[in-house]
Design brief:
The chain has about 375 residues and is α+β, with helices and mostly antiparallel strands. The protein has five helices and 14 strands.
C-alpha cells in the first residue's frame, strides 16, 4: 500500500516586494535623516500648494478654447435653408409671401410656406412668453462677447421654446396672418418679401394682385418669432427673433438688409454646417406727393458672404498637460529644497554667531587686570 503524500505549498515571497527592491535612486538610511517641526510645516505647506496648482491646471485643461478661422466658401452647390415664423396684422386673404433670388426662381420651386389665420394681439400667457424671448435675445445681442463661450459650450439650441397655445380665445374675426415654414433655396442673394395681395407667377418674375384693397386695409405691423438660416446650433444668435414692429402709418415699407455667413461648428457636442447673419433695418413711410415711392410690406433682402467661418473647440494636447503636471511637482519640490536649505543655513549661521559672541564675552571676563595698567587720574 502506497503512502499518501502530503504536499505543502512553499511561500516564495511577494512579487511586489521584489519590485520595490528595484530602485535606481539611492536613499538615505533612517539614522542619517534629520527631522524637525519646521521641515514638517514646510512639507504640509508645499503639499497644499501642489494640490492647488494641480487643481488649477486640471481646470484650465478642461476649459477649452474656441478658435475662429476664416476661409473662402467653395461649397457652391449647397442649399440655403430659411426658417420663417412671422405674424402680420392683416388677414391671410390680403397678404402674400414670396421669394425671388438672383436666378429669377421663385418660392414655388423651393417649397411652400403655410398660412394660418390668427389674432395679432397675444393672449396674456403668450405675451409673457414673447416678452421674455424679446428680452433674452436683446440681452444676448448686447452681451454676446461676455457670454459667447458659455453659449458655444452649451447644448441648448434655443433658449426659448415656441409660442404656447392661447389661454384665452378672442370672440372676434381673425385680424392677422401667421406665415411659417422652411424653404431650401439656392445659395445666392435674394429677396423674401411679404406684401399686399397674392402673388402670381410670370415667365420673368411675379406680381402681387391687390387691386381690390384700399389704403385703410394696409397694416404691416408684424412680429417675428423665428427667422434663421440653416440648421440650429448652440452659440448662434438670430438677431431678428423676438422683434415686434407696430406701424403708425399704414403705408410703410420695412426693409431688412441681411448678410448671411456660412458657418461650420465643430465642438465636443456638435458638428454641423449652418449659417449666421447680421441685419440692418430701415422703416420708410410711403408718400408719393413727397417723392417717397414703393410698395408697403416686409422685404428681407439677403446676400451670402464669400467667406466661411469655422468655429472649432480645442484644448491643449494630453502630453503637454501631463508635462505641466510633472513640472508643477518638480518645481514645488525644488523650491522647497532651496527654502529649507536657506532657512537651515540662516539658523546655523545665527547659532554660530551667538556662540562666538558668547565665547568672546566669557574670555573678557576671565582676563586679569594688572596694576601697572591702571592710569592715575589727576584731579584739578
Amino acid at each position: 500500500m502506497e503512502k499518501e503524500r502530503v504536499t505543502v505549498p512553499r511561500y516564495r515571497g511577494s512579487k511586489i516586494h521584489k519590485i520595490k527592491k528595484i530602485d535606481l535612486f539611492t536613499k538615505l538610511r533612517e539614522p542619517y535623516k534629520q527631522t524637525s517641526s519646521l521641515g514638517g510645516i514646510l512639507s504640509v505647506f508645499s503639499f497644499l500648494i501642489t494640490i492647488w496648482l494641480i487643481y488649477s491646471e486640471v481646470k484650465y485643461y478642461m476649459e477649452s478654447q474656441f478658435i475662429f478661422r476664416f476661409s473662402p466658401d467653395t461649397d457652391f452647390d449647397a442649399k440655403l435653408k430659411i426658417n420663417i415664423d412671422i405674424t402680420v396684422a392683416m388677414p391671410c386673404s390680403n397678404v402674400g409671401a414670396d421669394i425671388l433670388d438672383s436666378t429669377n426662381q421663385n418660392v414655388f420651386r423651393f417649397g411652400s410656406l403655410q398660412e394660418e389665420d390668427t389674432w395679432f394681439e397675444l393672449a396674456p400667457n403668450q405675451r409673457i412668453h414673447f416678452d421674455n424671448k424679446k428680452y433674452m435675445n436683446s440681452y444676448l445681442r448686447e452681451e454676446y462677447h461676455a457670454v459667447k463661450d458659455l453659449l458655444w459650450k452649451s447644448s441648448y439650441y434655443t433658449l426659448v421654446n415656441s409660442l404656447p397655445p392661447r389661454s384665452i380665445v378672442p370672440d372676434r374675426p381673425y385680424d392677422a396672418c401667421r406665415i411659417y415654414g422652411n424653404l431650401e433655396i439656392n445659395k445666392v442673394s435674394g429677396n423674401f418679401h411679404i406684401t399686399a395681395g397674392k402673388s402670381l407667377s410670370l415667365p420673368r418674375g411675379h406680381i402681387h394682385i391687390s387691386a381690390f384693397m384700399s389704403d385703410r386695409d394696409y397694416n404691416f405691423s408684424h412680429r417675428i418669432d423665428r427667422f434663421s438660416f440653416g440648421d440650429s446650433s448652440p452659440g448662434i444668435i438670430h438677431p431678428l427673433e423676438g422683434d415686434e414692429m407696430i406701424a403708425n402709418n399704414a403705408m410703410t415699407i420695412y426693409n431688412y438688409f441681411i448678410e448671411v455667413v456660412p458657418t461650420h461648428v465643430k465642438t465636443f457636442l456638435t458638428n454641423v454646417n449652418t449659417y449666421q447673419y447680421s441685419v440692418k433695418q430701415l422703416a420708410r413711410p410711403i408718400n408719393h406727393d413727397k417723392g417717397s415711392h414703393g410698395m408697403p410690406g416686409l422685404f428681407f433682402k439677403y446676400d451670402v458672404a464669400a467667406l466661411k467661418v469655422t468655429i472649432s473647440q480645442e484644448r491643449d494636447h494630453l502630453g503637454i498637460f501631463l508635462m505641466r503636471l510633472c513640472s508643477i511637482i518638480g518645481g514645488v519640490y525644488s523650491c522647497l529644497g532651496f527654502i529649507m536649505a536657506f532657512i537651515f543655513f540662516t539658523r546655523a549661521f545665527s547659532a554660530a554667531r551667538d556662540i562666538r559672541e558668547k565665547r568672546e564675552k566669557e574670555n573678557l571676563k576671565n582676563v586679569p587686570i594688572e596694576v601697572s595698567q591702571v592710569v592715575p587720574v589727576k584731579l584739578i
